[in-house]
Fold this sequence. Notes:
Elements: H1 3-22, H2 26-55, E1 62-64, E2 69-71, H3 89-101, H4 107-111, E3 123-124, H5 127-140, E4 148-150, E5 157-161, E6 183-187, E7 191-199, H6 208-233, E8 253-256, H7 264-273, E9 283-286, H8 288-295, E10 306-310, E11 316-320, E12 323-327, E13 342-348, E14 353-357, E15 362-367, E16 374-386, E17 393-397
Parallel strand pairs: 4-14, 8-17, 9-12
Antiparallel strand pairs: 1-2, 3-15, 5-6, 7-16, 9-13, 10-11, 11-12, 13-17, 14-16, 15-16
Helix pairs in contact: 1-2, 5-6
Amino acid sequence: MRKDEYLAKRDAMYNDAQELINSGKIEDANAKMEDIKNLDLQFENEAKAEANLKALGSAPQIINLSGAGTVPSVSPVAETDPEDIYDSVEYRKAFMNYVVGGKAIPDKFRNASTTTKTTDVGAVISPTVINRIVEKMESIGMILPLVTKTTFAAGATVPTSAVKPVATWVAEGGTSDKQKKVTGQIDIKGFKLRCAISMTLETSVMTLQVFETTFVNNVAEAMVKAQEIAFIAGTGTGQPKGVLTETVPDGQNVEIAAAANPTYQTLVDADAALPLAYENGAVWNMTKKTFMKFIGMVDDNKQPIARTNYGINGQPERSLLGRRVVLNDYMTSLGATITSDTVVAFLFDWSDYMFNTNYNMTIKSYEDNDTEDQVTKAVMICDGKTIDKNSLVTVTKKSA
């Protein structure tokens, strides 16, 4: 089953389940949800089987026990492309031994590397593991799935636009004024994101599957946290530049006095400051504690302004004034001690933020002499910048 077929079937089944719930047919909806789970399992099993088959693509060699040398296999297979060598089970096991036991990667894998020219890189992470890390990052990240992802080379210059052109009605044979497109540019840099993972000596005996799962979880969680912190508050020096380090457009900052509490009008003013052209994709961004400050508020009709719904998968879907809320742990919460003017919430369309990386991770391993742990440094080269900041509206808590 191809991925597009799987996604199409899943979307159709999801919509059917939602319609059944809306119609009050809960038992039928539960049955449909079981069908979705079975479809997910089927697709996962097929993907695993295809990956395993690919790993077995190279025919084994038959060893001549009489000592006459190596006998070619009966059905020779074309040589594996150099870029596929890191996907083999042999390399993945060698990679595991390198990370856990500190054993050197065999020379045949080192010589085949065209990924990097850095001399201190110890090993290249297998594409199979990279894909699992990326999938894990997308699933656990709150902001990462929303940003625009690109794969430009470091040093490239990307043009951006500061205004949106408009169309005008004209009479037959008439014309309209030419609009000058105001453009800017973004310079792509290659910042190094480093994640150090410690695996103790006691874990030196493990299966390949257990190792890769543990490795994927550790790297993904650390990378996502660092990336999302940079998306919001990165300085742009040695790391991506965050949204809140941009200059907010005029009239798009709402202030809360130091001695005052946020009110219903605070959110109304913030939403009103968002230009209509950026209405569709903008979402609220704040901590869970800040959201809980809003969830108890009511409007003039005593209706709650914050709502939490639950989808078919049971995950909460939070909203303020009908607009989605994306929670994070990387901002200051309302109620915390404020020593300087601090942004406690903001509106932004994350598709206007560009995250550039090729997800090509490399690692180097060393032993911690104090603990005898094998420490692995996973490194990713990436950059991030705001493409268009006009969807940014901030809510600032004053310090005095």
